[in-house]
Design a protein that fits this description.
Elements lengths: L1 H21 L41 E8 L2 E8 L4 H12 L6 E2 L2 E3 L3 E4 L5 H7 L17 E4 L11 E4 L13 E5 L1 H7 L14 H7 L1 H7 L5 E9 L30
Antiparallel strand pairs: 1-2, 1-9, 2-8, 3-9, 4-5, 5-7, 6-7, 6-8
Helix pairs in contact: 3-5
């Protein structure tokens, strides 16, 4: 009898334990930690895809226009005259309209001589223009201070590079360097500030610049200045014309007397 009571007691205790365990709530799960927000990557500067097809850039330039250059040293403006070098100006006009000179490093600055640029920051663009040469225009202006000219590697080899004359470089005239634009006195103050302490070292590495683009210059010549963008902004101001005096009005002619036709 005693054994039966003990067995009954143990069975009741086991049943109570199982019932209590089944009613115990599961421990609350810790809330999932929010994933850290991924910082947006800055947009990578790109280029107008039309630049990959030079044969499409054939628009005729206006007779005269201005191009504004915004740079890391400030802004300056070129006054461009098509009659000075029609082939060169048409090329320059199309390049600017399609933003070829945007985000471009000014790789050459030699005080007393020239500032030179025109190698794209994007290797595919350089590859597309490498053989897009122009025939020479006749030299109608002189390479004096403030005049802008296409760089060449010999006769009929102009592509995209241009230079700005710091001083009187008229000796270049006989070599076929054809000026096509000018920069005024105020603009030349900006041009003279471009970093020039690398001298001609980057100039001697143009092949690497063409193949690697801006990345090569940023790594090896980090202090060089950059053209943020170049845009066509309008025609240069024309000199005020003297007013032409109006001629005195002529008296009105008398009406002709009509006659009836007659037989002879």
């Amino acid at each position: 009898m005693r054994t039966l009571k003990i067995a009954f007691f143990l069975a009741a205790l086991l049943l109570f334990s199982l019932s209590s365990y089944s009613q115990t709530p599961a421990p609350a799960q810790a809330p999932a930690k929010p994933k850290p927000a991924t910082a947006a990557k800055p947009a990578t500067p790109t280029y107008d895809r039309t630049l990959l097809k030079p044969t499409l850039l054939k628009e005729k330039a206006p007779d005269s226009f201005q191009v504004k250059f915004e740079t890391t040293r400030g802004d300056f403006t070129m006054d461009v005259t098509r009659a000075w070098a029609p082939l060169g100006v048409d090329r320059f006009y199309n390049l600017v309209r399609h933003h070829f000179y945007d985000n471009m490093v000014i790789f050459r600055a030699v005080q007393g001589f020239v500032v030179q640029f025109g190698i794209s920051s994007y290797p595919p663009v350089n590859a597309a223009w490498k053989d897009a040469t122009l025939k020479d225009d006749p030299v109608l202006q002189s390479n004096k201070r403030g005049y802008v000219t296409f760089a060449t590697a010999g006769a009929n080899t102009r592509t995209t590079q241009i230079f700005i004359n710091f001083g009187d470089n008229s000796r270049l005239d006989a070599m076929g360097f054809t000026p096509f634009a000018t920069i005024d006195h105020e603009g030349m103050k900006v041009v003279e500030m471009f970093y020039d302490q690398y001298a001609d070292n980057p100039t001697n590495q143009q092949d690497s610049i063409e193949k690697q683009g801006k990345a090569f210059l940023d790594k090896n010549y980090p202090k060089l200045d950059v053209i943020k963008q170049a845009t066509v902004v309008g025609a240069p101001p024309l000199p005020a014309a003297k007013p032409t005096p109006k001629p005195a009005p002529k008296p009105a002619p008398k009406p002709a007397t009509s006659t009836a036709p007659s037989n002879p």
